[in-house]
Structures are given as C-alpha cells and as structure tokens.
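If you are new to this repository, start here. Below is one unmodified record pulled from the training split, so you can see the exact layout before writing a loader.
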Amino acid sequence: MTDHPLLTAVGLGPGDPELLTLKGLRAIQAAEVVFAPRGRDDAPSLALGIAAPWLDRQRQTIVEVTLPMVREAGQVRAAWRSAAETIAAALEGGRRGVYLLLGDPLLYGTIIYLRRELVALAPGLELRIIPGVTSFAAAAASGAVPLALAEERLAVLPASHEDDPTRLRRVLADFETVVLLKAGPALPRIVAALEETGLLEHALYAEHVGMPEELIVRDLRSLDLQRRPYLSLVIVRRGDRL
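And here is the target side for that same chain:
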C-alpha cells in the first residue's frame, strides 16, 4: 500500500476490452479496489463488464456506485456526494483504487464531477487519469471516416442536449466534421436537420460501439428513429458522401 490513498480513473474505451490501453490495464491490475459506475441500482455496470477479463475478483474488492443519468441537479449532486463518500471510505489507509469509465474520462466523464467532491472529502487523495479511446474515434475507424484533415475543423456536441434546431444547423454549416454524441433521444431532430441541410447522405450512425451489439449504419432513413439507445452517435462529414 502507498502512504496515501490513490485513485486512478481509467478510460476503458467504447466497449471492446482489447481497446483498453496497456497503461490502463496495468493500473487495473495493480488496484486493490475497483470502482464501477452504474446508472441504476438494479442495472449492471457497463464499465465493469468491459473490464471483467482483466479483474481478479479473489484479490480485488469490486464496488459499484450508482450515478443516475438524470438532469435534475439536486438528485445528481447527491449521487456524486454519496459515490465520493463510498470511494473515500474504501481507500482509507492508503489503498490503491481504480475508477472505470467508458470512453475517455475527461470527455463527459463522471470523474469530472466526482473529483470536486473527493477534493473536499479526502484532500490527501491522489487522483490520476488515464485516457481512453473515444466512441467516435472507434466508430470513425470502423466506418473508415476521416475525422479531420489539414485545416478542417471538428465539433463534438452532446446531441441529447441540443434542443435548438437553428444552432444545430449552424454547427453543421460551420464545421467540416460534426460528431453528435448521446444521439438516441435526439435522432428524429438530427435526421430532420440533416435532411434540411442536404447532409443526410454524409452521415454515419453508430450505437454500442465496440460492444457485441454494435450497429453501424450509413442509411439513417433505415433506422427506427424512436427506438435508438442513449449510447449512440452520428458523425457528419461535409464534403464527403459516406
């Protein structure tokens, strides 16, 4: 054990266990406590499932923390505080822990919010961050879609929060490549904006990237727009027909 608690946030990548970095793998294997977020108490942790091949459940303590995917600020803050208390308590005595996240920790990752709580609760806790492959990088690789060339600009937006169709159309016009994450709930208005701007044939849709149920589609008209999962994205590349 170290003389002070250590928490390493590990980006697991989008879903394929083989996309975990060697540095992330070493951190997971060195940990005494493994923390994994889940959206509901009765739901399995996707991050834990991805990391499962690399865990030693006889040696390591596995702790799942519930962080509901809701917008209500009071409820979310209470969940962050509770998770931070659980983490701080489990690492007392200088234990080493890892916190598992899908994709990259600093791209819409929950560790960003948990860090604020941990700093207040456990000022002696050392936090390290190991980056991971993003879902849109993996989707672009699967579809052989360039994300940016030379002087081109790339925009990354959380689609489920983009409620203004005018702003979305403006972004599609201003950037050569646009990545719309968390696209499922917003897919009907995304498709409408793409049709209005003549970009529907320049879009690639992907869901559950890197997971067994991965789906990558170039014809967005073929999708049931009302039944797409939260873990989905759209890549729009202006000038290229995908």
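Two things worth knowing about this chain: Residues 113 and 230 are 20 Å apart (CA to CA). The first strand starts at residue 6 and ends at 11.
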